């Protein structure tokens, strides 16, 4: 029996789900993978830091999936605007949403609106055309709120020199901005302790690998209560993170020109302003409450920083025509099947960060995809999937063409990829594997070459 499925979002979550769909042995499945950007790969292209080639390398396995003939990439299409979910039901037996989480959670404290969300900066340095193309990097001391892997990424990029990043795929405007970056000191703030930090050990160690950066921790901030010790014993990754932080705490400052200070037990309470200018960040000292939580001590510190970023988590955005839980910022679902109130939505499924929230490494989305596709196949076996009105697989292309949508394809990615590699190899400042093309129209133009 054959099935046609629309997967919306060509990041790792959507590609893993597509792979499981087309590999199924009981059904002959064809997938159309819709993507808003002209290029595929989502978080790998627009979320992973440019100096993380190991993680960017995941793209090779995703590439192999997209090469399969049962999968068709349709980029440069905004589902909800260019085509609605109800319209897609006329062409597909089922729809899987995997649009991820790209927006920043809001920093809710006085002056917090002056703080820049980490995702904005990531969007800038990863050359995402939906984000600002110029960046103010005049601050000598910078605060980064949050002690997760995104905080590590942006602190590392802020502390590295532009030249160190020139071996990567960064576009010219990003290099020019980073080359003139004035930041010398980056302060990261965790409101709880080292055992409650969200870092992973490998990424924390990588923070210290540049010759121009020294990472420091105040020995006073290395503190564990009974609950923290228990967490360390139960979780090897937490224990390794604590060990790395302890190493950072016993060293003397050296002559590295850029310092990253990781502070614990400091809860940001106000971004201090003088008119439009940021003049500091006020934090309140915390202590552990014995249960993994914290309580304020009433002791405040003003840190003289001129720029504040918050890396306190991402959030998903609603998809037009699909239920959305505004409190949890996810699409409500039961095991991946979208819920409308207490009933299952017709043939509509969800996977990845928009299903469970923005936590976990890229590989974790594989188990998500498995749960979701198992649910979809169970519904197919039960005969409860949608029956599309169009049986011709090219009918959807006719509709897109009729609407004047310049959709991009997997063949188009090969063209864009070739153009980016040529730009990288011929780069006069520093030849490298690839230089990213940022402008939307440019991407579409190359994809149609
Ligand atoms: P995260 O891991 O959830 O970390 C968020 C941090 O923000 C936590 O330290 C949290 O502290 C803090 N925070 C939240 N609200 C706060 C507030 N109001 N005031 C002060 N601090 C606050 O989120 P993330 O860093 O965005 O990462 C998202 C996911 O992507 C994670 O699974 C991460 O591992 C993954 N990722 C991986 C890589 C990689 O290189 N492998 C790179 C980037 C991201 P509390 O714990 O106290 O709430």
TrEMBL record:
EC number: 1.18.1.2
Recorded catalytic activity of this chain's protein: 2 reduced [2Fe-2S]-[ferredoxin] + NADP(+) + H(+) = 2 oxidized [2Fe-2S]-[ferredoxin] + NADPH
Binding site for FAD: 13, 35, 43, 79, 353, 360-362
Keyword set includes NADP: yes
Positions contributing to NADP(+) binding: 191-192, 203, 360
Matching Pfam families: Pyr_redox_2
Enzyme class: oxidoreductase
Cofactors named for this entry: FAD
Keyword Oxidoreductase: yes
Annotated keywords: FAD, Flavoprotein, NADP, Oxidoreductase
Chain ranges of the FAD/NAD(P)-binding domain: 4-181
GO MF entries: ferredoxin-NADP+ reductase activity
Family recorded in the similarity comment: Belongs to the ferredoxin--NADP reductase type 1 family.
Protein name in the entry: ferredoxin--NADP(+) reductase
Taxonomic source organism: Corynebacterium timonense
């Amino acid at each position: 029996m054959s099935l046609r499925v629309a997967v919306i979002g060509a990041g790792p979550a959507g590609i893993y789900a597509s792979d499981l769909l087309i590999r199924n042995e009981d059904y002959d499945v064809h997938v159309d993978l819709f993507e808003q950007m002209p290029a595929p790969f989502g978080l790998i292209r627009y979320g992973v830091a440019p100096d993380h080639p190991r993680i960017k390398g995941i793209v090779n396995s995703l590439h192999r999936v997209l090469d399969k003939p049962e999968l068709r990439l349709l980029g440069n299409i905004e589902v909800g605007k260019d085509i609605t979910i109800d319209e897609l039901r006329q062409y597909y037996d089922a729809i899987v949403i995997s649009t991820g989480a790209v927006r920043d959670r809001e920093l809710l404290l006085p002056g917090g609106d002056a703080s820049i969300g980490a995702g904005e900066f990531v969007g800038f340095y990863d050359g995402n055309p939906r984000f600002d193309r110029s960046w103010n990097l005049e601050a000598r001391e910078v605060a980064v709120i949050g002690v997760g892997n995104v905080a590590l990424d942006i602190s590392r990029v802020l502390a590295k020199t532009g030249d160190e990043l020139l071996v990567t795929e960064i576009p010219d405007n990003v290099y020019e901005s980073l080359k003139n970056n004035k930041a010398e000191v980056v302060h990261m703030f965790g409101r709880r302790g080292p055992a409650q930090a969200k870092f992973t050990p490998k990424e924390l160690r990588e923070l210290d690998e540049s010759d121009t950066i020294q990472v420091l921790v105040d020995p006073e901030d290395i503190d564990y209560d009974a609950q923290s010790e228990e967490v360390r014993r139960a979780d090897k990754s937490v224990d390794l993170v604590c060990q790395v932080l302890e190493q950072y705490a016993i060293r003397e400052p050296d002559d590295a020109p850029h310092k990253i200070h990781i502070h614990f037990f400091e809860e940001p309470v106000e971004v201090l302003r003088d008119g439009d200018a940021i003049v500091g960040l006020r934090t309140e000292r915390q202590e552990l409450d014995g249960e993994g939580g914290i309580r304020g001590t009433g002791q405040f510190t003003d840190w003289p920083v001129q720029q504040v970023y918050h890396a306190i988590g991402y959030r998903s955005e609603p998809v037009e025509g699909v239920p959305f839980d505004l409190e949890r910022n996810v699409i409500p679902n039961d095991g991946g099947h979208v819920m409308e109130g207490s009933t299952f939505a017709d043939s509509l499924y969800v996977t990845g960060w928009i299903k469970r929230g923005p936590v976990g490494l890229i590989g974790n989305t594989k188990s998500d995809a498995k749960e979701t596709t198992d649910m979809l196949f169970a519904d197919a076996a039960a005969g409860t999937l949608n029956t599309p009105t169009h049986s011709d697989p090219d009918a959807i292309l006719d509709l897109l063409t009729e609407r004047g949508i310049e959709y991009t394809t997997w063949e188009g990615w090969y063209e864009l990829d070739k153009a980016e590699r040529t730009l990288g190899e011929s780069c006069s400042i520093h030849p490298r594997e690839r230089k990213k093309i940022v402008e939307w129209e440019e991407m579409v133009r190359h994809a149609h070459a």
